[in-house]
Automatic annotation (TrEMBL):
<feature type="transmembrane region" description="Helical">
    <location>
        <begin position="126"/>
        <end position="146"/>
    </location>
</feature>
<feature type="transmembrane region" description="Helical">
    <location>
        <begin position="86"/>
        <end position="106"/>
    </location>
</feature>
<feature type="transmembrane region" description="Helical">
    <location>
        <begin position="241"/>
        <end position="264"/>
    </location>
</feature>
<protein>
    <recommendedName>
        <fullName>YndJ-like protein</fullName>
    </recommendedName>
</protein>
<feature type="transmembrane region" description="Helical">
    <location>
        <begin position="207"/>
        <end position="229"/>
    </location>
</feature>
<dbReference type="InterPro" id="IPR025450">
    <property type="entry name" value="YndJ-like"/>
</dbReference>
<feature type="transmembrane region" description="Helical">
    <location>
        <begin position="153"/>
        <end position="171"/>
    </location>
</feature>
<feature type="transmembrane region" description="Helical">
    <location>
        <begin position="6"/>
        <end position="24"/>
    </location>
</feature>
<keyword id="KW-0472">Membrane</keyword>
<feature type="transmembrane region" description="Helical">
    <location>
        <begin position="55"/>
        <end position="74"/>
    </location>
</feature>
<feature type="transmembrane region" description="Helical">
    <location>
        <begin position="177"/>
        <end position="195"/>
    </location>
</feature>
<keyword id="KW-0812">Transmembrane</keyword>
<dbReference type="Pfam" id="PF14158">
    <property type="entry name" value="YndJ"/>
</dbReference>
<keyword id="KW-1133">Transmembrane helix</keyword>
């Protein structure tokens, strides 16, 4: 499982996040975007090294990049002075990689941060790159592009669900299940608006295909997330973490996040 998780995390660090940063309006400062590939390469290298000083140092370089990105959230809030749903989603995207990096530094050092097992810390890294950064960003893009109550619901519930899942880490499985329900509702709203509204407006067939894939995959992957959270909370049979990484994790990384950011990049580059 560790090899697959590492590859998923690398995709997030090296492709999904930098592509997503270019989709924000306004974009984060040029200095952050230019430094990001170097930070992401350091973080990627840390994944493959044995736990210890070198891995922690490289993970720390990545953490520094995420801290610089997170620092843009309060600056952006002061500039925009907006609590609109789409803006809250973008702020969540800016902050989420920092949570992932904190877990990465602790896990690479063999430190059970807040008492969590190293396996849980390792899985927190992809979760906050994809459910945190990618999902929140796409929810914000969907909300801005289409408007309407369902788009606003998506832009509010994806960040809320991500936060509730994080809180559930500390409060227990029942609280995490609530977070999973809220996050799933938001992700399914993203899928519906993407399929119904965004896809129909795309002028090019490859863009429509990418949007269709991203929407369709979300239906299945979030159903898996719900089944896992329900099983953890109730003791009912549910997939184990290795199976979840190979299905839910890989599907969200390739089918949702990658297809989404590539589709939105094409949408922004296509003349209207």
């Amino acid at each position: 499982m560790s090899v697959l998780v590492n590859l998923i995390v690398m995709l997030g660090m090296l492709v999904v996040v930098p592509t997503g940063l270019r989709l924000m309006a306004p974009r984060p400062p040029t200095a952050i975007r230019r430094a990001w590939p170097l930070c992401a390469l350091a973080g990627s290298a840390a994944l493959w090294l044995p736990r210890g000083t070198t891995a922690v140092a490289l993970a720390g370089v990545y953490a520094a990049g995420t801290l610089a990105l997170a620092a843009e959230a309060p600056r952006r809030l002061r500039r925009t002075r907006s609590a609109a749903p789409a803006e809250l989603a973008v702020l969540t995207a800016l902050l989420s990689p920092c949570v992932a990096a904190l877990a990465l530094v602790a896990e690479r050092g063999g430190h059970r941060l807040f008492g969590f097992d190293l396996e849980i810390l390792a899985l927190t890294v992809p979760h906050f790159h994809y459910a945190g950064f990618a999902a929140a960003l796409v929810a914000g893009l969907v909300c801005t592009a289409t408007g309407g109550p369902l788009g606003r619901f998506a832009a509010l519930s994806v960040p809320a669900g991500t936060l509730l899942v994080l809180v559930g880490y500390f409060l227990g499985d029942a609280a995490e299940l609530v977070g999973a329900v809220v996050l799933t509702a938001g992700m399914w709203a993203v899928a519906l608006v993407t399929w119904r509204d965004v896809r129909s407006r795309a002028r090019e067939a490859p863009t429509r295909l990418l949007l269709a894939l991203s929407a369709g995959v979300l239906v299945a992957t979030m159903l898996l997330a719900l089944s896992w959270a329900l099983g953890e909370a109730t003791g009912l049979p549910h997939p184990d973490l290795a199976w979840m990484a190979a299905t839910h994790g890989l599907g969200n990384a390739l089918g949702f996040a990658l297809c989404s950011v590539l589709a939105w990049r094409r949408l922004k580059e296509t003349p209207s």
